[in-house]
Amino acid sequence: MKNVLIVGAGRLGKGFVGETFFNAGWNISFLDKDPKVIKELLKNGNYKVRVHKTDTVVDNVISGYQAFTTDKQHSVSEAFLSSDLLMLPLYPEDFKEAAHYLGELFEQQFKQNPNSKKTLICLTNKNHIIPEITAYFRDNLTNQETKDWFDSHVAIRDSIVRRSTDAETNYSTNLVTTAVASLIIQEPVYSDFSDVQWLDVRKNVAMLKDIKVFTINGPHAATAYYGYLKGFDDIPTAAQEEDIAALIKGVHDATVQAVLKEYPVTRDEIRELEYLPEAKNEMPDTIFRVGYDPIRKVGPKDRFMGVVALCEKYDINYDAITKAIACAFAYTEPQDANAIKLQDDIEQNGLQNTVASHIGRDQNSEVVAKIVDEYNKLAQLGLIG
Ligand SMILES: NC(=O)c1ccc[n+]([C@@H]2O[C@H](COP(=O)([O-])OP(=O)(O)OC[C@H]3O[C@@H](n4cnc5c(N)ncnc54)[C@H](O)[C@@H]3O)[C@@H](O)[C@H]2O)c1
Ligand SMILES: O=P(O)(O)OC[C@@H](O)[C@@H](O)[C@H](O)[C@H](O)CO
């Protein structure tokens, strides 16, 4: 049997990655830094995933896995050494710590089995971070010989996640997921996972990922932030409301125009990145998960500002995107640490300064003025409390 180690056993780790490898009959090991995640996984020895496919909804029970915390004694060691594939569904800011923890295990692998190879697949929505992630791993290797071995025996690859997976918390053992499109993985890889459904190795993943994050995640985040201000809790319900639907369309249309100008692709070619096939009984994804971490989402090259830069370059109207960004600056979800941090920044430094510093533009730039203006309009409508 083949072995996979899943680093990050939260929503995506359990609901997508674990479920998918379980269906293919692989040996699964989970590693998570949150002891609650591991305790819950081991409590009954199984967890449940409701899978929304295009034509049916299936309830699956996943069992027979191992699960480890990132403990000092590295209990995961044997599972790590026997897995030639590591899947890493982590937030971008978590890779440094994960690389630090795994460094010692790569040293062991080099000493015990220098001919073995490994593929690490990173599952995030942040693009162009593989060189940074690779550097985190190399920095944790003690000498040049191990680094040389690492360079020729370990492939760290990016991927494009085209599914939503939710649960009440990262440690929940009841998850929902949409299985309608594959995970697109950057080639080449050292591991053979051709027997696993939903994994698709391709060229040009950096370009395809920009297109997917801009066209899907931008409108998605706009739904979350405007939906929150209008009092909704879940994405499918918010997306039906007239004003929110108009904003989604505005963000999407500007984004598609910008993408078609910037990249050597046709409208037909981007369709699989721009829309996901509809799942049966659309899953009730939460505004909390989709809006999570507004600081990352309003950042200079992310789903909003990455597109604004292209709109400026090609003289495309981006008013809808500035309205979506204004909603992000008005997002006050108390359970989201970076939403609270944004509110503290606004209180201490004023709106204009805060917007400028987080989107990475000059205080007096046109885009900052537009966002401030949209924010004030939302306030006048009584949407900012
Ligand atoms: N859930 C989705 O639908 C979805 C879709 C597309 C992309 N993503 C991306 O997938 C990544 C994970 O999202 P999620 O929804 O599963 O988040 P999550 O919070 O549910 O799970 C992340 C897990 O990683 C663990 N973790 C953090 N640092 C770790 C470390 N150093 N070592 C081991 N474990 C560590 C956390 O404890 C947590 O359990 C994010 O980058 C997200 O943007 C998620
Ligand atoms: O994961 P994030 O925080 O970057 O973005 C939230 C959602 O937009 C995202 O997870 C989507 O559901 C997913 O990318 C769909 O394919």
From TrEMBL:
Organism: Amphibacillus marinus
Keyword Lipid biosynthesis set for record: no
GO CC, any one term: cytosol
Residues covered by the Mannitol dehydrogenase N-terminal domain: 3-167
Catalytic activity: D-mannitol 1-phosphate + NAD(+) = beta-D-fructose 6-phosphate + NADH + H(+)
Keyword Glycoprotein: no
Gene3D superfamilies: N-(1-d-carboxylethyl)-l-norvaline Dehydrogenase, domain 2, NAD(P)-binding Rossmann-like Domain
Mannitol dehydrogenase C-terminal domain residues: 208-377
Cited PANTHER family: ALTRONATE OXIDOREDUCTASE-RELATED (PTHR30524:SF0), MANNITOL-1-PHOSPHATE 5-DEHYDROGENASE (PTHR30524)
Gene Ontology molecular function, alphabetical: mannitol-1-phosphate 5-dehydrogenase activity
GO biological process per UniProt: mannitol catabolic process
InterPro entries attached to this UniProt entry: 6-PGluconate_DH-like_C_sf, 6PGD_dom2, Mannitol_DH_C, Mannitol_DH_N
Protein name in the entry: Mannitol-1-phosphate 5-dehydrogenase
Entry keywords, A to Z: NAD, Oxidoreductase
Pfam families listed in its UniProt record: Mannitol_dh (PF01232), Mannitol_dh_C (PF08125)
Taxonomy, superkingdom: Bacteria
Membrane-crossing residue ranges in chain numbering: none
